[in-house]
Please model this.
Amino acid sequence: MNVTRRGFLKLAGGTLAAAGVGASVGIKSAYAQPFKVRYAKEVTTICPYCGVGCGIIAHVSNGKVINTEGDPDHPINKGALCSKGSSLFQIANNDKRLTKVQYRAPGADSWQEVEWDWALEKIAHNLKKERDKSFVTTNADGATVNRLETVASIGGASLDNEEVYVLGKLNRALGLVYIEHQARI
Amino acid sequence: MAEFVKLIDVSKCTGCRGCQVACKNWNELPAEKTSFLGSRSLQNPPELSYNTWTLIRFDEVNSEDGKLKWVMRHDACLHCETPACAKACPSPGALVKTAEGAVVHDPKYCIGCKACISACPFNIPRNSAAEEKMAKCSLCYDRITNGKKPACVTACPTGCLDFGYKDDMIAKAHKKAEASKGAIYPDNHSYGTNVLYVMPAGVKLTDLQNVNPKPGMPTTILWWKNLFKPFTLIGMGAVAGFAALHYFIKGPHLVEKKKEGGE
Amino acid sequence: MTNHWNDIQHADVVLIMGSNAAENHPISFKWVNEARAKRGAKLITVDPRFTRTSAVSDITARLRSGTDIAFMGGMINYAIEKNRINWDYVRDYTDGTYLVNPDFRGPVDLDGLYSGLDGSKYDKATWSYQVDEAGLPKRDLTMQDPNCVFQLLKKHYARYTVKKVCGLTGTDPKDFEAVCDTFTSTYLPEKSGTVMYAMGTTQHTYGSQNVRAFAVMQLLLGNIGVAGGGINALRGESNVQGSTDHGALFHILTGYLKTPNAKQPNLVKYNEDNTPKSNDPQSLNWWGNTPKYMASLLKAWWRDADLETAYSYMPKLDAGKNYSYLPIWSEMAKGKIKGMFVWGMNPAVGAPSSRMVRRALAKLDWMVAVDLWETETSAFWQTDAGVDPSTINTEVFLLPAAASMEKEGSVSNSGRWAQWRYKAVNAPGHAEDDLWIMNQLVNLTKDLYKKEGGAFPDPILNLTWNYGPVGLDGKVHNPSPREVAKEINGYFVTDKEIEDKVTGEVKKFKAGDMVPGFPLLQDDGSTCCGCWVYCNSVDDKENKMMKRDTSDPTGLGFYHNWSWAWPMNRRVVYNRASVDAEGKPFAKDKPVIWWSGLKKAWLGDVPDGGGGPGAKHPFIMVPHGRGMLFAAGMTDGPFPEHYEPLESQVKNTMSASQVNPALARWDKKVKEEVCDPMLVEGCAAVTYGSEFAKDFPIICSTYRVVEHWQTGQMTRWIPWLTELVPDQFVELSEELAKEKGIMSGDLLRITSVRNLEGITAYAYVTKRLKPFNINGKTIHQVGMTWHFGYKGLVTGGNANDLTPFIGDSNTMIPEYKAFLVNIERVRR
Model:
């Protein structure tokens, strides 16, 4: 780590020195509280929003993200972040995040919470049923095409490279041709 | 102990509001419930508040050469060299000017009397009716005393916000002002602050929101400080006296009521 | 981006056009401002609005949305007239000297058309170079031959006079000339200008040609391959670059390999069709390596199958048929698509004519959505969406996903840097990362096919799937992105000896060794590689995407030891165009590469391709090796020509061809093929002079603000961001507001021919928009964000409920940037 850029200045700590105004009584105040990220683990990440690829540090303590801020070592942003990048903390700490698998039955007017195993098995069955029913071996000209035209897969620009690669592999093994993502919009 | 200055080169601001959110992030301030503001367009929340210590103000103005300027100005505490808020404050320890240059507040000692709000020449401190406390930017005192720049300065991508030793920053301000033909605000000769702006050239200060073209120590504060304050440590009842005095001399101080908390 | 973010600091002029970089790529301004501070660079912004980018620019020019080619054409004409051309560069590094088929005709001759138009498709037989006996393009080094590319280009753009251009664009001629003068000043070899563009450029029915116009300009000025130059697409999502690299589009596999089609029944035919030939020993013709990359990909996917068998597993498209984003919705509307996976995308807000798209979703039997929050797409069946849930029979699964800091893996930024992110914390509750979800699906599907059999099970049963430790049941349960990264890079699947053709040296590799770089990939099945452009990202020692060394020995900001950039850790592509035939940089104060006679090697950035100075042509991906001023690969003409948006109030004064002649009318197609009246409603369009044109007189663009992102699915749930921009708004000029009796803050209704009920938004009356004077006629333009929908902490009118169902003739990217609306006040 490049200490000179990480720490702006080496200072002797947070002693209050009253400068002639206000009070000069020796108080232990809220603003002299311990530096909150002092003992936190630093984990580096890249901003999930636009394509600049800014570095962000997540400060982690007791399994929680307690702060996020721009990575001063990162050659592109050198610590800077826009309003979206500065709000990463609220993705990690957000009570509206999905935490359970949700299922909506045909015709139902609400979600119900279900378990992963149940949902994934049902999805796999749906997928297989549709693939077996609609798989196209040859096209109108009689050429071999081995494809499934009735299932589409969209998205991927917010996935990691490793995920989107595996997704492409899986999709094409299934025979999908309607494969699209955010690059098209 | 080094003294610092935050330098704001207004013409470089792109209004990305990284600073505004970074401030909330570091200081753990909740979002406010807001709505579309009409004439002030993108500015939101509409004003500084107990939970909003940094605000980008948006002003569409015609500059002196007749061209449209969209001025986006980072507004937060200017950390006066001789802070009127601290002078006005009747509660010891609630507002303190530190050697680093920050004017910091301590909610533990704040009695919610709003004297600081009336006193501030820049209309910065804000009150929470529910908490009966004031709040404002602390220049990220906990960061600057731990070797980090304030959260807003760290976040700024454009070079609009800068932070460093006082002498360096003053020199830099003069260099920038000379190059851009913009004015330094506040003029440090007449009113000293640990936050300096280089204003965009050709823009009248009076065309911008919440800019006091001639900041100074309110006369009420001088009276208060010299005549009355010595007695207040005995009885907080004098707060009411101060408020009354201010009212007689200056009239009511208009601070919009803000909703607290929200999403 | 041909270049990368840090490289912007080397520009002498920055042109931001079709982008609002200060808002949508805010950190780019660190480097724009660095160029201004250090080099005195000038910043130009060309935009219909006065944006936050305009606010900090040295020169701003306004143009009516959809007139970029007119503007750029005028600029090209200006450069030619003022002799601001980098002649050496054009002669040596572009096809300006090539002679074109004498039967070729262009818009000059054919009133806006190119030779070969048949219906809405061009037969491109005449769009070709003349070739000599050796099969090389014939050249005229003086560029005087009337059939050479440069002369044809000159003739084509001579029509783009200032008067004609500004008449169409509505730009103040003084501003236009200031832009031309400043940007073309970079024609000097030691100067460079960069173009930063985004969706303002691409989201038009001729969006690809808008980009081509930049390419032509930059080649004429010698600005490609050099530091501070290039054509830089600012990508809107953290990994839209990486997901494109990894083939998440119908027409490409990984590394931009073409998807096989039905006319390519075997690998031999596929390779024959996709492996261009060049008889020029100086042309590297990089796509000549296609067979190696395709063989290695097939080995990565089906390790144990022979290459032809693996190829037979690949689905084949019908040749020439489009399976892109718009067709997905039209096929769904027809009831042809029954199931859909939605991985972190939100078409219910983001797709064009999104109201029609939401209705099409109801035709699905099932949908699987994977996201961090509930989205409009996953909730399309709810009353919030304005529908009766009991009438919708789609089964919906909404799977909770891990966020970026709750898993690990790499993302590739616009500058092609693949950067590793680490896991900071566990995902909340039962949320899981997408890789885990995909792994489970593969395990379950393999099990089902093993147990029950079914349609063509082999590609599934034989799919290589080994991304972690295998459990007692023979399956992987905890897949590791690090293992996936190794497969993406590629490794030897058998022992292999490879002889270096230049040095004669023999390199020996063992099965399992990582392939050091794509030049060593093999076409015989001895290597596997998931994505050839990422080959070199992981070696036997380390995953280079994790590198965090901030050293910058050249001081030029390449940061070769910070993460890893494709291809081969090259930071500026086409960098051989930055040096002369002796290997000397054109710009001495900002060299990208330079030849060291002493070391007999290139120094600086990783050079494009092998060989010493002057040995190879710089544009290695082009078969003939030179930059293309004349691009026959385009569907709609080798030179960009101005046409009007599909919906326009302006007559095209450049030619009699009002709209792009090669435009495929998807809106009409849906109307013809879909019988459901609820679904065709979204497909109308107000073309120039049509019946309803007077009812929708105002141009509208959609765009983004810094405080939100895309459809809002990742920002309208964030309290700090919803505080900043809580409501949908429509920006309009003071003049239009006066005409309509509107004040800022009024609630407005915005309608288009596709949506007569319209959507509502707050009026934002601003000096930053002005009416355009278009050949004497006043034309108003308004704009709104596409961030709002009916879910989230804040909700608002969905702009895409108004947008047309039409796309660019090359890419099918929808025309979000120019369509017609009307506005009226609902209440004050």
